[in-house]
Amino acid sequence: MKKRVEQAIILRNKEIAPDIFDMVLKTSLSQDAKAGQFIKLYPDNNKNLLPRPISICEIDKEQGTLRLVYQKIGEGTCLFSTMKEGDTIRILGTCGNGYKLFEDDKIHIFVGGGIGVPPLLETVKQTKGEKIVILGFRSGQFLKEDFEKYGAKVYIATDDGSVGFKGNVIELMRKENIQGDYIYSCGPKPMLKALTSYGEEKGIYTQVSMEERMACGIGACVGCVVDTKEGRKKVCKDGPVFNGLDIIF
Q1: Strand, helix or coil at 61?
Q2: Tens digits of per-residue pLDDT, 43-86?
Q3: Could you tell me if 53 and 236 are in contact, meaning their C-beta atoms sit under 8 angstroms apart?
Q4: In sequence order, which residues have a C-beta less than 8 Å from that of residue 2 and are 6 or more positions away?
Q5: What span, in angstroms and rounded, lies between the C-alpha atoms of 63 and 167?
Q6: What pTM value is reported for the model?
Q7: Distance CA 124, CA 148 (A)
Q8: Less Cβ crowding at N or C end of the chain, within 10 Å?
Q9: What is the pLDDT of residue 211?
Q10: Where would I find the H helices in 109-163?
């Protein structure tokens, strides 16, 4: 499907955790969106010209909506956080290649770190079989109840021990001896590297969604490349989801 720019209507935009916002957009892009893809939002303030990539959290084709859960961290996302219900926002999408979904009734493991948690929700929603979700945060948590709504057993690890296990997701997985058939993941690169090693050790097929800074989002500027065993690839076009064993971390 060819990417296109359109004006989306904001149906919801609220803070659900410190500096974490939950936005719902009415947009025709929902009809072609897939789990693990992202869209780009334009600040449109004559100052921040480049659109910001935001992962798709949930897709509702019947209602024609996309849900985005994003972190307020820079000028662009700070601007997005001030927008209200009924406002319009210019978006580009849908971008990238999402997760390969396995529909067999096996054990599916979903591992997210920080703002890498949201894109896993739609993936869980579309997956059959046993679902185990491991979420890692520095402190606190968000979206736990959303994952549970779709039948997942959720574990949480926090750096400060404020919620769940004190430590990182890999330490938690080893403590609980988490094993299964497939791993779907998104988060910081050190986590993805360790998780790929864990998957290789346990014989689990591991998909990783890479987070890189992006400019164009359509593969033209070569600003978001990663090293793979097949050469350098663009996260925005060839990814963001890759087989973990293909990435040279």
Answers
A1: coil
A2: 977 666 678 999 999 999 999 999 999 999 988 999 999 999 99
A3: yes
A4: none
A5: 39
A6: 0.94
A7: 10
A8: N
A9: 78
A10: 119-125, 144-149
> How far, CA to CA in Å, does 241 sit from each of 53, 60, 163, 195, 220?
14, 21, 28, 14, 18
In the three-class reduction of DSSP (H, G, I as helix; E, B as strand; rest coil), residue 242 is classed as: strand
The answer to whether 16 and 72 are in contact (CB under 8 A) is no
Q: What is the pLDDT of residue 105?
A: 81
pLDDT tens column, 171-202: 999 999 999 999 999 999 999 999 999 999 99
Between CA 223 and CA 229 the distance in angstroms is 19
Greatest Cα-to-Cα distance within the chain, rounded to the nearest angstrom: 51
Tell me which amino acid residue 139 is: S
Tokens of 106: 């096996």
Kindly report the backbone phi and psi dihedral angles of residue 74, in degrees, each rounded to the nearest multiple of 5, phi listed first. -130, -175
DSSP string, 21-54: EEEEEE-GGGGT--TT-EEEE---SSS--SPEEE
Q: Helix, strand or coil for residue 121?
A: helix
Rounded Cα gap, residues 27 and 11, in angstroms: 10
Q: Give me 147's structure tokens.
A: 């994952």
Helix, strand, or coil here: 89? strand
Residue-range domains of the chain with CATH: 4-95 (2.40.30.10), 107-246 (3.40.50.80)
- Do residues 109 and 180 touch, judged by C-beta distance below 8 A? yes
Long-range pairs for 135-139: beta carbons < 8 A, 24 or more residues apart: 135/111, 135/169, 136/111, 136/112, 136/168, 136/169, 136/172, 136/187, 136/191, 137/113, 137/163, 138/114, 139/163
Phi, psi of 62 (to 5 degrees): -65, -45
